[in-house]
Amino acid sequence: MITSLQNFFLKHNKWLFGGLLVIIIVTFVLTIGPQSFFGSRGDQRQRSLNFYGYNLSSESDQRAMVYSAEISAVMHPELQLNRDQLTDYAYLRVTALGMAEQLGIPSPTKEELSDYVSTLMIFVDPQTGEFSPESYNRIIEAMQGSGRYDRDAIGTVLREDYRIDQVRKALGGPDYSLPFETRQDFISRSTTYEVSLARLNYESFNPEIELSEEDLLQFFNENPGRYEIPETLSTTAVLFKAEAYLEEVQDPSPEELAAYFETNRMRYEAAREEPAEGEPALPELTLDDVRETALKDWKTQQARKIAARKGEQFSLRLWQNKIALDSPEFETALKEFGARTRDLPAYSRNQPPRLPDVPVSVLNSMWIYVNNPSRYFSDIAQIADGAVVVVKRGLTEARMPSLDEVREQVAADYRASEKRRLFAARGQEIRGIFESRLGSESFTDVAADLGLEVEELEPFDGISVPQELRANSIWDQAMYLDQGEVTPMIIAGDQGTFAYISGKDVPEIDKDSEEFQEFVARRSTGMSDAMGWARLQEIKDASLAALMGTPDQPAAE
Prior knowledge:
4-stranded antiparallel beta sheet, disordered N terminus, alpha+beta, 3 domains, disordered C terminus, extended
């Protein structure tokens, strides 16, 4: 599906291809909600949830929302949407379009749309900084070539994004930043820094730690939450395996088997061994070549459907007849529906066992029924070879063990805690040494004398701060230091890091310069855009809350 996109983006926009690939994959996951194996339940009427013209109870409407958001996300890489944000972005777009209707913002004219498209970052030539018609054509053609997008859908989304942009500007309002804030922002971005790093490795730091009985008992009493044995749930899986229902499957008609073969032809093609080099190509695969395998696969597929249906019927029987667990009626139902049972390992909240034929979501859901005497079984869940229902057997209450029961664990935890404390104390000691010696010795020499690993970074400005400084919050402390100063030790992962400001060139500001005036204009626009998104997010959240909290009341249209 993405061959053309792959060829284009790998050559021209690798970062964009990666984001697009994630978005395409996650779309299929996020737009499929839980449902019965055999369609909607006839005795349950889904309430319409009208959210600015979209019915949130409708799978097709949800897919349409996310599909449009997916295209928009590709058009706006500067938003840096990740997989967890795509669905929220879909709701945000729908809210904005609803606001556009309320504010009377029309679709753009041809000229307005052209002007808007020319401002999009994705179509700007990085060499010239201007809109590139060639980039526009390449990207649109690549998206069309993926087979997932068509030009009409892309055009519709661009027109929608124009209206959303107008709404965001209307909600954003003017920038109320103080001149001092703007000046400081300009200085922090334009300042050039020279930074050296020194690292103390945590793994190689091995202080002597004495452990007395008093220390152990005190640590145990001060940290009861670490050692409390949590309540655990005992459950049994009721399995409806396809193999148990194979005898109920009738042979398919020739037409049914032929249709099944055509649908799964690629799977059977892939199972064939490729001819060795120089040997003739394999003949076209026919149904007769794999008839026995296809027949077996078809019957297994039908048996899975029967297994799922049996599971639903079993659950319905338990509910309608109010059958008690371990009653004769329960045992009768197991036999009637061809189920077999298997006791599962006891587990605590949010720590279910990983089992191949019982989904984690089902095990977690059993905690909902812990205090419900009338409901002891889960919803049915589909598995690879049938279906499963989980029933609760009992609950073991939480308890606090004695120190002797967990002595080894307490001792290990105490040593780990004491090592961290001593590591932090060593960091304070090292910083004191730096501050006392840096006036007469170089940072590199002092660090080497202390056995620290040293790294000198390339000079950078406030816009291009290295990721390793931002990722570990080192820059949060280093950015405010003067030349010649060193940060406290910042602990992250398996090392502690000191940052030394070996150079800091702060620019002089000419408020009348073209550079400063352009910065003020860009900053004002950015602040306004951010405020527009924030206000739009508030409207979206309030609309969803009102919709979900007031049955039979539609959202604002």
